Amino acid sequence: MGKVIGNIFIIVLGLAAIGYLAMAYFSQFYYFPGSRINNVDCGMETPVYAEKMIKENPADYKLELQFRDGKQTITGKNVGLVYDYFTELDSIRLKQNPFLWFMSLNGRDYKVEKKLSFKDELLDRTLDGFSQLKAENMIAPENPVIEMNDEGVVVATVKEAGTTIEDVDKLRDRIKEAITKGETKINVDEEGFYKLPEYPVDSYKVQGCLDYCNTVANLKIYYMYGDTEIPFTRRQLYDTIVINETYGTAISKSAVEDVLNRYSWLNDTYDKDRVFRNHDGKYINVHGEYYGWQINIEEETELLYSDLIHQRNVSRKPIFSNEGTVYSTEKEDIGDTYVEVNLARQHVYIYQNGKMTMDSDCVTGCVNRGNATPPGLYYIYYKQSPSLLTGGETPVWVDYWMPFNRGIGLHDASWRWKFGEDIYISNGSHGCVNLPHAFARDVYMALDAGTPVVVY
Hints:
Radius of gyration: 49 Å
Low-confidence stretches: none
Number of strands: 29
Mean pLDDT: 91
Strand content: 25-35%
Distance between the termini: 150 Å
Strand order of the largest sheet: 22-21-20-29-23
């Protein structure tokens, strides 16, 4: 019995040895059992089989080139692309120790990468056909433009980034590298192949220019028209700066003058029309040829220029060539104390603090003799009592003289015994507003020089 068991053991051992040696023999040509390559079961299979199972079609390969002015695509077919897995697959087989095949029974994973090759001449021919790589199609980059945006912030804007490739050969080398590595996309802009302008947005020159411009634009500069404070806008302050080609900055005196002229045009009331609500409650247009607020541009340019170059925040009364009585944000500069002369009605109304305090008939300039009193908005230059008037044929003394339009003024006319109606048509004055003596006296006592006179 013992002999039988011994023989069986020898037979089993022999068979196992034969099986072991057979597997060791086949492991010279096949992968160990349980071998997985790129997640494909390749146990007891040849490298040729493994390549067939994991191989990709090189014709399906695409490399997308993203340019600023479009896209281009390179395919595997364009460049004669070839994939090679076999060398690495066979290397796995060769590294196997055939006599240790049983150690892979529980499975073993391998990862292989394809090796790519292509024909340089085909790639060069493909790239030569891309319009973006031709020098005649490339647009040079422009330096950024300094401008103020809608939010009032001075920014550097790139109007033309350009399409000039800094180094075409370097880009070609990058494309070859991408194909070799199997990459599928190159963003030419993001990878920095485009030529930069002489002064990029983030250069210290451009950034220094922006800092200066925004500092000036942020200044708080206000002019006082009477009690009304009117600011210079950020745009107006920015417009006083000149910027040269290298982004150097300076305040320009001529630019300051231009800005002041525009500011004055917007806010001055001198020699302009304005709407006036008359005694009857009607709104009429009156023109103040010599009345209203007017900045002295020449003198004020020097002061504002100094404020700007020293970057001073100021609130002050500017130098005026002419000043009105009052001022509001609606440019109402007549106020609530004034003289109102109604030519058609031949009547004078005196308003003080918004209320009519006195009124009277009058006689204005003679129409038939061409001496009609000019309508408009004026102010009392000064008061004089008594005064010798020399504008007519014969000098005449009056007790109360209040000129408002050169030689035309309000005064008493003791030689007249009647006022109003249509006297002015044929028997009017030389242009002055003739008043009853008592009324002229009351007006003289009630009003100061500078009081507006509205004639219509």
